[in-house]
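To close the chapter, one final illustration. This time we ask the reader to focus less on the individual chains and more on the assembly as a whole: which components sit near each other, and how the overall shape emerges from the parts.
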Amino acid sequence: MTDPNTVQLTEDGRLKHFLTTEGLSRELLTEILDTADSFISTQERAVKTVPLLRGKTVVNLFFENSTRTRSTFELAAKRLSADILNLDIARSATSKGETLMDTLWNLEAMYSDMFVVRHSDSGAAHFIAEQVTPNVAIINAGDGRHAHPTQAMLDMLTIRRHKGDIEGKIVAIVGDILHSRVARSQIHALRTLGAAEVRVIGPGTLLPSDIESMGAVPYYDMRAGLADCDVVIMLRLQKERMQNALLPSEGEFFKLYGLTKEKLAFAKPDAIVMHPGPINRGVEIESAVADGDQSVILNQVSYGIAVRMAVMAMAMSGQQTPVNSEEPA
Amino acid sequence: MRYLHIANARVINPQTQTDEITDVFVADGRIATLGRRPDAGEIEHTIDATGQWLIPGLIDLGGHLPEPGYSQKGSIASETEAAARGGFTHICSLPDTKPVADTSAVVKLILEKASKAGFSRVLPLGAMTQDLAGEQLASMYTLSEAGAVAMSNARRPVRNSYVLRRLMEYAATYDIPLFLNANDLSLSDGGCMHEGPVATRMGLPGIPETAETIALAQILLLVEQTGVRAHISQITCRRSVSMLQQALENGLRVTADTPLANLLYTHEAVTGYDSLYNVQPPLRSERDREALVQAVARGELAISSNHSPHEIAAKKAPFSDAEPGMSQYDAFLPQAMTLVSREELTVEQLVRALSATPANVLGLSQSLTEGADFNAVLYDPRDEYTLTASEMASGGHNHPLLNRTVAGKVAQVFLEGCRIC
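The assembled structure is written out below.
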């Protein structure tokens, strides 16, 4: 009950839900990347769909608004030939006082096969996976500050395709680590896939306490933190951080932690620049870098569909395997 | 005179540092003799307590009764029955009912319902501020006349230092004791677990240690200034233990307790998002837990229940959305006894922290000595059972031992000589 992997894995160690990158084996993470790689080639064909999820119903269950993430999941489901239903819960059921459990029971009654869940509470996807009936796969599309595992895996795929391998690379994640589910999922995945060093760069107010315990090295000075990096991942800075006494101003943040050509020069010359989007030009990154040679931000978006197809296909196949056929002799 | 005779019990009484197998004779609600037959009279009934332990009745310095106002979570009858089964003869009820216990009518209602139910005796805590809002003083004198044994603001803090100072001065005038929770809301607001590596990994907003220690420092300084009789409810941090030690060395009249959950579990229990372990104050680190256990062993802390029964829907939600608290009364004593079986406390240290120490906080005496009220628990350490929802007395099944084997069982509980369990 306590180990997340007893929830998201089958007894023989395959995915049946995808809730977090934490604790997943290197083999499994690599399998996700390899499967996604194979889907990238199908994306370049004229006919982009494959029949892996034909006849299955996928429900996009977004308790928090996100047009972009929802669209990539929708596209991924369609390219796997699934039927897809988008539910914008943020503006319907829960605002009428319906509890999360009521919503789930209603959706189960529709015989869906997979829920793609985004929720503002850390652990929400985990909670839903524990509560739903068997044979419904849960894909975490972001829960609170906890995890955004498909985003992290598309970032891993981006690094692998542009840098050859993750093994031995120095990766810096810059900005609001405290509130970032993306950063947490990236740190787990990078550590498991053999990155030489994972650095987190930001002011003390935006680095969570005891971040070292996750295997990340904190830096307050961006130039020192970027030295010899192979990969620079910028995080989006939310405007409300200025109202919470976490930061004085966007201007000061940009001066200290905004990615400019000058600061990027401290990283390796062939370092790549990534960002989960949507970017705030002039707040965490200057346009010359966002649109520059080292930026792979747009590639990330196209890999996102392939990674989501891979995870959906794998989790659905994990659900379909009979765990124990209890036929009496 | 007709006597109740309890034969061959292991009588453990921390007040007199007694631990021996002996006989107890009870008449008129009091212990007539210990270890010897009374000179005159006859035995009405003998309980063969061979293999069982007889300890003073437990006293809880803080538990939530869901009545009035939260009938979906249980009733005064259900929770006092659960408390009796857990070994409590007396429980202090927190004032955060609906309406809050800031009028004598609510205090009297609680007392009447508890008395009618006939299980553990309820010692109501009155609200120290009106509606627990932390702004206007509640009528503390009237509330104590109505039967409130002390005043508390539950976990709702008095944010304003001026108000806190004045209410301490006012309570000190009439020697009304205050039960204070150390919680700086500006630091704890939005948090749902201990701030540290587990919260960071799980992405849950943390409650830093300083939310407790800063508020504790403020309370201790104002207690020193006002001279009020103060009890600190539910401390959870190692640092708080040393701050209290220092206050005692400086001659301050303060006592304190810690919730049982903080002696048994740490923030690691939250891994896996089990909403059962969403409690306020939060479960903290192993270092904190060890320091609390040691303070209990030294006799510096009482152990409270922080009993918080909840209906299923209140707990069946993502971790941070779940209502905080554990239902603790059913099987409380066996659960606490695990500290003895783990060899972290001696049975005498544990029993003292559950009876003599809290009695002292309330100005009561809870001791198995001749002439004392017979408030006692017969505990069978060899018995074993499974705690199922249908067998729980509490309306809240959010119990850490639900559907698990409980080692040890409360066999009988006596309040002033009458069996309440």
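Chain B has a mean pLDDT of 97. Residues 100 and 131 of chain B are 6 Å apart (CA to CA). With these observations in hand, you are ready for the problems at the end of the chapter.
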